[in-house]
Structure formats: structure tokens, C-alpha cells
Automatic annotation (TrEMBL):
Cellular compartments per GO CC: replication fork protection complex
Name of the protein described by the UniProt record: TIM protein
Listed Pfam families: HTH_TIMELESS
Species of the source: Pomatostomus ruficeps
Coiled coil: none
Lineage: Eukaryota, Metazoa, Chordata, Craniata, Vertebrata
Gene this chain is encoded by: Timeless_0
A molecular-function term among this protein's GO annotations: DNA binding
């Protein structure tokens, strides 16, 4: 690649640097920069999250997010995603 020097002018993540040295599209699906975005919250998931929040917000001595995650159905949201969505709502 004759124009690789231009890419060196900008900050790269380790995954992007690996991709530059091994060739583009060398990373497998789900690795590094080729990961997909987080799926958006559906209205049903938002409703379920809202109901779980109102149900468990008054529980003393417990972590409300951990409780919500335990009762939240699939697709397996992370703690960070749940907190971010609660703040957004």
C-alpha cells in the first residue's frame, strides 16, 4: 500500500494497527473494530425495564441494577447499557 504513510499520521487502535499490517479485512467477525453496534432498545424492552425499575427501586440494601439485570430477559444487556438507558429514559 503506497499510501500507508498517510494512515500513520492518525491515532490507531491496536486492532486497526493489526489490520494495517496483516491486511484489511483480516480480522474475524466480532473482533476489534469490526464489532457490530449495540442493538437499540425496543419499546417492549423499555417497558420491561421501566416496570422492573419501579418494582425494585424501593428495595433496601441491594444493588438495583444487579436486580434488574437478573430479571431482565434476553438479549443479555450489560450493566452499562442498562444504566445508560435508565438515565436516557
Amino acid at each position: 500500500n503506497k499510501k500507508a504513510f498517510v494512515e500513520l499520521l492518525f491515532w490507531k487502535s491496536p486492532a486497526a494497527a493489526c489490520e494495517m499490517t496483516k491486511g484489511y479485512s483480516s480480522l474475524q467477525e466480532g473482533e476489534g473494530t469490526t464489532r457490530g453496534r449495540v442493538p437499540p432498545w425496543t419499546p417492549q424492552e423499555e417497558q420491561e425495564l421501566r416496570e422492573l425499575y419501579w418494582k425494585y427501586k424501593e428495595v433496601e440494601g441491594g444493588d438495583i441494577i444487579a436486580t434488574i439485570l437478573a430479571h431482565l430477559g434476553p438479549p443479555g444487556r450489560t450493566r452499562r447499557q442498562v444504566v445508560k438507558q435508565l438515565v436516557r429514559m
